């Protein structure tokens, strides 16, 4: 976002979850990030592609993100800026491959459980 549009950038980094992604199919091209647990007390902030730290990253609905809040000078509204995902990556060693299915090492039972439950691709 252009620096002449942003009036104030809050120093606090917030955690949130992507509620709506910004895609070209939408008329306004803006996504929505929600902070807080339940919808009654949650605050929602709008973001765009220009507000992402890594412009090549594609956010999906439900992704955990970290961001800062900025105030827009012309409207006085608050938006999410410096948005970055906080994805976790799991690493495992492949022992063998049977057909198209990799067999992971037995030293990683938690990862095996997550894959068998379909929680990790």
Written account of the structure:
There is one protein chain. It contains one helix and seven strands, in the order E-E-E-E-E-E-E-H. A hairpin with a 5-residue loop joins strand 4 (64-72) and strand 5 (78-85). The mean pLDDT is 77. With 121 residues, the protein is mainly beta. It is elongated, with a radius of gyration of 19 Å. It starts with 5 loop residues before the first strand and ends in a 5-residue tail after the last helix. The longest helix has 8 residues, at 109-116. The strands form two sheets. A five-stranded antiparallel beta sheet has the order 3-2-1-4-5, with no helix packed on it. Strands 6-7 form a two-stranded antiparallel sheet. It folds into two domains: 6-85, Beta Barrel (OB fold (Dihydrolipoamide Acetyltransferase, E2P)); 90-121, no CATH class.
CATH class of the largest domain: Mainly Beta
Radius of gyration, in angstroms, nearest whole number: 19 Å
Q: First CA to last CA: what distance?
A: 34 Å
Give me the CATH fold name of the largest domain.
OB fold (Dihydrolipoamide Acetyltransferase, E2P)
Q: State the helix count.
A: 1
Give the number of domains. Answer: 2
Order of helices and strands: EEEEEEEH
Structural class: mainly beta
User: What is the helical fraction, as a range of percent?
Assistant: under 10%
Per the principal axes of the C-alpha atoms, what is the gross shape?
elongated
Largest sheet: 5 strands, antiparallel
Number of strands: 7
What's the CATH H-level homologous superfamily of the largest domain? Nucleic acid-binding proteins
């Amino acid at each position: 976002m252009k620096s002449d549009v942003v009036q104030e950038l809050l120093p606090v980094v917030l955690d949130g979850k992507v509620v709506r992604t910004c895609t070209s199919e939408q008329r306004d091209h803006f996504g929505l990030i929600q902070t807080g647990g339940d919808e009654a007390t949650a605050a929602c902030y709008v973001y765009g592609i220009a507000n992402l730290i890594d412009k090549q990253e594609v956010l999906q609905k439900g992704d955990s993100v970290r961001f800062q809040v900025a105030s827009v000078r012309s409207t006085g509204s608050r938006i999410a800026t410096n948005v970055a995902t906080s994805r976790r990556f799991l690493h495992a060693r492949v022992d063998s491959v049977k057909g198209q299915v990799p067999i992971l090492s037995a030293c990683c039972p938690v990862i095996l459980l997550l894959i068998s439950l379909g929680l990790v691709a």
